[in-house]
Amino acid sequence: MAPPPVAQAPIGIPRSRVRQLMAASVGNVVEWFDWYAYSFLTVYFAEQIFPTQGGSSLVPVLSAFAVFAVGFFMRPLGGLLVGAFADRFGRKAAMTFTIMLMGGGSLLLAVTPT
Fold it and tell me: How far does CA 44 lie from the centroid of its chain?
């Protein structure tokens, strides 16, 4: 009777896991770059989108930052909704959906009359 086989511990992380980790990291970096670009450029486009009241340029900047804050605090809810969408329709469909939403937001900024 032969002894039972000894289970071997994995030597390294599988390539597919490393690739997934790198893809998620790149996606996260792009998303944070988008947030930082919006926050840094707010002072330039705030007066064009939000009206100036009483000659104060502070009101449009605060309005733009309020939009930024709403978007930031809605991220967990968006994660839940997109996660449920991905569970039902797959990761590829969810990624396509989120890219379409980002493109729609960029298009909205591009066609703003000002």
Answer: 22
Amino acid at 114: T
DSSP 51-112: PPBTTBSHHHHHHHHHHHHHHHHTHHHHHHHHHHHHHHH-HHHHHHHHHHHHHHHHHHHHT-
Domain encompassing residue 98:
75-114
Q: What is the pLDDT of residues 21-75, one digit of tens each?
A: 888 888 888 888 888 888 888 888 888 888 877 777 788 888 888 988 898 899 8
The total number of structural domains that make up the chain: 2
- Asked if residue 82 belongs to a domain, the reply is yes
- Specify the pTM: 0.59
Q: Is 1 inside any structural domain?
A: no
